[in-house]
């Protein structure tokens, strides 16, 4: 599949390129990204180069991993504000499931950009004219309330904690799991957890 652009009034999503390498490398040394994602740590320019020249184009070509850089509205080559993507398994013609993932640059947090970007990807992934997924899931390491807040806003339904499920640099960590089906409303389907820190709200 050829990469394409997704747009809304809040964000533009376009494929990261070589021009984004230095920005991605600078963002991915952020301690929060290292703590909650599976990017290499410490993160280097070489890691960013491999990401944009290897993982991203291969994912689109194989129709397995679809990755976009989050940018300001109207700009297909502006500064990277975050990254969002969906990975999927199965073959066309089968019922397929996928997983949503994202991270946000420190200077772009708290502005609703990740929710807006993820909403575009969710809508495309579940649309029969898009990927046509039967199930889209979200997974995060236990305690990542900022990520959970985004999934909650999009209507993902929390399914529980999976013990030592998520792999991060050779270690298995407890993970949260939630899912969204094509006919589910794209808005909160359950109360925000009482135990969530105030800062995550």
Automatic annotation (TrEMBL):
GO terms for molecular function: protein N-terminal-serine acetyltransferase activity; protein-N-terminal-alanine acetyltransferase activity. Keywords: Acyltransferase, Transferase. Pfam families: Acetyltransf_3. GO terms for cellular component: cytoplasm. The keyword Disulfide bond does not apply. Residues 178-201 are annotated as: Disordered. Residues 11-182 form the N-acetyltransferase domain. Its EC number is 2.3.1.-. This is Putative ribosomal N-acetyltransferase YdaF.
């Amino acid at each position: 599949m050829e990469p394409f652009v997704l747009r809304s009034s809040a964000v533009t999503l376009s494929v990261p390129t070589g021009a984004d390498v230095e920005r991605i490398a600078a963002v991915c040394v952020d301690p929060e990204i290292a703590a909650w994602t599976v990017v290499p740590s410490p993160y280097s320019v070489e890691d960013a180069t491999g990401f944009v020249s290897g993982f991203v184009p291969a994912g689109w070509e194989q129709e397995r991993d679809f990755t976009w850089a989050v940018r300001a509205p109207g700009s297909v080559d502006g500064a990277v504000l975050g990254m969002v993507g969906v990975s999927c398994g199965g073959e066309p013609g089968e019922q397929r499931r996928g997983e949503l993932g994202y991270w946000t640059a420190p200077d772009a947090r708290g502005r609703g950009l990740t929710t807006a970007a993820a909403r575009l990807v969710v809508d495309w992934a579940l649309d029969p004219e898009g990927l046509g997924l039967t199930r889209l899931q979200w997974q995060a390491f236990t305690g990542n309330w900022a990520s959970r807040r985004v999934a909650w806003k999009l209507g993902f339904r929390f399914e529980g904690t999976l013990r030592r499920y998520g792999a991060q640099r050779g270690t298995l960590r407890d993970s949260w799991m939630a899912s969204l089906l094509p006919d589910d409303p794209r808005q909160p389907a359950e109360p925000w957890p009482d135990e969530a820190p105030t800062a995550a709200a």
